Amino acid sequence: MRARGVILALLALPWWQAMVLGQNTGEQIETGQGHLADGSEVSYRIRLMPLNSFPDLPRAVEKTLEQRGCLIPQTYEARQLENVIHGSFEKQGTSDWAVLCSTNGTTALLVFFASQPGVAIMLRRQPDAQWLGSESVGEYGSAWGIAVAPASQVTAAMGRGAALADHDGIADTNVERSNAVHYFHEGKWTASNSAGS
Questions:
Q1: Which end of the chain is more exposed for a tag (fewer CB within 10 A), N or C?
Q2: Which stretch is the leader sequence (predicted)?
Q3: CA separation (Å) from 17 to 55, 61, 128, 134, 187?
């Protein structure tokens, strides 16, 4: 009877709280209905990983993410853990981090500079289900991924007339569709194009 009550309580939650706990891992699954770029409605399933899946995160970064209640979304094509990256994002030679943080149905791209490791810089955010993709018909998941963009990729992405990059940027990708590069230079962030399309 108690189990039935728990099931009924879960069914009463908003779609973004329809989470299923993965066995012994802390992994959660977000499910719901979303829309593709062509307007068609689809069911989706997004894997969300706990912070302890990423033991290399500096403690100050991890603590800030814990305070926000972050889980790390994985793309539909993930074969290994992703969307926590490490590079020189502030300037050449620094040891900085960037993370996709999902809370309450919204994912934010957060950056942490080594100079202020407990301070999260939010580059942008969007609903978890805004970018969906699939490897097989009917099985949709998150299509938002981030990766380190080396200086050569940053320079190419920024186009003619842009200064040569001397440190890493962040590739902000809608898997198999579009790619923007975020780059920090002279105290501000720029992007190669609109990542939120």
A1: N
A2: 1-18
A3: 26, 25, 12, 22, 37
Q: Each residue of 96-135: pLDDT tens digit?
A: 999 999 999 999 999 999 999 999 999 999 999 999 998 7
Q: Which of 100, 20, 88 is closest to 54 using CA atoms?
A: 100
- In eight-state DSSP terms, residue 75 is B
pLDDT above 90 covers a percentage of the chain that reads 70
Contact (CB, 8 A) for 34 and 41? yes
pLDDT computed for residue 11 by the predictor: 35
The residue assigned the tokens 């802390």 is 26
In Å, how far are 1, 19, 80, 83, 86 from 54, measured between CA atoms?
38, 20, 11, 10, 12
Which of 55, 181, 61, 53 shows the shortest CA–CA distance to 121? 61
User: pTM of the predicted model, to two decimals?
Assistant: 0.84
- Phi and psi for 144 in degrees, rounded to 5? -95, 120
